[in-house]
Specification:
mainly alpha; single chain
Length: about 60
């Protein structure tokens, strides 16, 4: 799940935003423990982590 590893999503998200991309973002999770978790819980966790980790922070 996003945030469980070492990828700096904030920085990468700013790069993508600064490059002008405004399209869809796909989330892929390759973890059997996550797959075994209730789907609604996974979606809520994914949405919160996306807001906290992936969306670019305002600059300036």
């Amino acid at each position: 799940m996003m945030g469980d590893g070492v990828i700096d999503f904030g920085t990468i998200g700013r790069w993508v935003h600064d490059a002008g991309y405004r399209g869809d973002v796909e989330v892929e999770v390759f973890n059997a423990a996550v797959w075994a978790t209730d789907g609604d819980q996974v979606i809520e966790t994914m949405k919160q982590r996306y807001r906290d980790l992936v969306l670019p922070a305002p600059v300036g």
